[in-house]
Specification:
- The chain is an alpha/beta fold and 451 residues long.
- The chain is 45% helix and 13% strand.
- The protein contains 19 helices and 11 strands.
- A 7-stranded mixed sheet has the order 1-10-9-8-11-3-2, with helices on both faces. A 4-stranded parallel sheet has the order 6-5-4-7, with helices on both faces.
- α8 links the parallel β4 and β5.
- α6 packs across α11 and α11 crosses α13.
Length: 451
């Protein structure tokens, strides 16, 4: 039984569950989405929360510029480039046999400074928020201080009294570990079996304790939460429920608005913005999508992309059970080469926030991730990790599948797509070792089982 129903009863009630549980690629278009203004009053987070997060990052900017040389040029602002990818657009049209009107762009969170993935937004922000709280309460910092006071031996000695713990499939652990260790915290990252060895090695090199688990993400999180609860000086970064992580990701929308203005990209009723976000437990894409809806309202349409074997958030939203259900309940194994997306149970916070806001979600096979990884390398000379390619099928499938073209017509968007901006969110890859990337490209060149 699954929440009081047999699997057969679930399949009868929700026909889309059958292909989902068979790991067949599919699209789900959210029937619960409502206008942004109508959804806002019932959401636990608001624009004011996102603006407060942005101001906190501004306060820490001088400190970040001082402790990370790569942030000196940006004066301590952690942000990623925005890049048009016309050659990939042409290659994708051929590959998917679908015309893509509008322009295809890539948001390169894969190249965010410090930890090289979208997790640099939420993870680093949560460490900074926790450090600020401790320092203010401990008298180490005062509201009007220059935050560079935290880059001193007394400050690092102060933080060394405290622990930070997190469960991760890899990239969140990197961002928490690298930032926490640099400030002086004792950091432990509980890593699932999906995490890549090079990520574990890098953390250990920076003085972070790595605990490995011969299981998936959920066990790593549960173990980390338990261990942290035993120590009053320990702080657990809860990827499933953290509002701080969520808001750190959301600030991306404010920065993106500025980048669009600089690039001359309009987002309005006649120029829709379609955004495609790789999704694991949901915090990163959920935070970004929330921020985008706060900034662009009903002119932005966000889609989550998940592996066919790990469609956790899609399952939570489709069933309405949110975090009370996991992919293993329906016979999926949660095994995917997209290590950052190998999550069986979704975030309840994200499902709550996205239920009225998300346009839809789709699933993608590992085979396609590697094919698109190789195509992006060939067409744009850009190298991403497999999970970061999950967003790439979205624009072409949106324009080429019967169910999605019908949705566009219902939303009165089809006639506006020639003026649309399609933004694929690249979530990680710049820190992947050259040997590891060579392995990805070699795998992409292997014949598929069908040939």
């Amino acid at each position: 039984m699954i929440l009081g129903k047999t699997r057969e009863q679930w399949l009868e009630a929700l026909p889309l569950l059958k292909p989902l549980t068979e790991a067949t690629p599919l699209w789900w278009l959210n029937p619960n989405r409502i206008p942004t203004a109508k959804a806002l009053p019932d959401l636990p987070l608001q624009m004011a929360d996102m603006m407060a997060a942005s101001r906190r990052l501004d306060r820490f900017a001088p400190y970040l510029a001082q402790v990370f040389p790569e942030l000196k040029v940006s004066e301590g602002i952690i942000e990623s480039p925005l890049r048009a990818i016309p050659r990939m657009q042409q290659g994708g049209e051929t590959f998917f046999m679908a015309s893509l009107p509008g322009q295809l762009w890539l948001k390169l969170d894969s190249h965010l400074p410090v930890s090289g993935s979208i997790k640099a937004r939420g993870g680093i922000y949560e460490v900074l928020a926790h450090a600020e709280t401790l320092a203010l309460h401990g008298g180490l910092l005062h509201p009007d201080d220059d935050y560079r006071v935290l880059d001193t031996p007394p400050a690092r000695a102060f933080f060394s009294q405290y622990r930070i713990e997190v469960g991760s499939t890899g990239n969140l652990g990197l961002s928490i570990g690298l930032m926490g260790a640099r400030m002086g915290f004792q950091v432990t990252v509980h890593m699932s079996q999906d995490a890549r060895e090079w990520k574990k090695d890098l953390l250990r090199e920076r003085g972070v304790t790595v605990r490995e688990y011969a299981s998936d993400y959920s066990l790593a999180v549960a173990s980390g939460r338990r261990e942290s609860a035993l120590n009053h000086a320990s702080y657990f970064v809860d990827d499933e429920n953290s509002q701080s992580l969520f808001l750190g990701y959301a600030v991306a929308a404010l920065r993106l608005k500025e980048q669009f203005q600089e690039a001359g990209i309009a987002v309005n009723a006649d120029h829709p913005l379609m955004v495609y976000l790789p999704c694991g437990v949901g915090g990163g894409p959920g935070g970004v999508a929330f921020g985008l809806k706060m900034v662009f309202g009903d002119h932005v349409h966000c889609f989550f992309a998940e592996p066919t074997h790990s469609p956790a958030v899609l399952l939570g939203l489709l069933t309405g059970a949110h975090d009370a259900v996991c992919v293993q309940d329906f016979g999926l194994d949660n095994c995917t080469a997209a290590d950052g997306l190998a999550v069986g149970c979704p975030s309840g916070l994200v499902c709550t926030m996205m239920k009225p806001l998300l346009a839809g979600a789709y699933t993608v096979t590992d085979e396609m991730l590697f094919q698109l990884l190789a195509m992006l390398d060939e067409t744009e000379d850009l190298q991403l990790e497999p999970s970061a390619l999950a967003g790439m099928p979205g624009p072409f499938q949106l324009m080429g599948l019967p169910e999605t073209t019908q949705w566009l017509a219902e939303q009165k968007l089809q006639e506006k797509m020639h003026q649309a901006t399609h933004l694929v969110w690249a979530t990680g890859g710049s820190m992947v070792p050259a040997s590891e990337m060579a392995g990805y490209l070699a795998k992409a060149a292997e014949p598929s089982p069908a040939t």
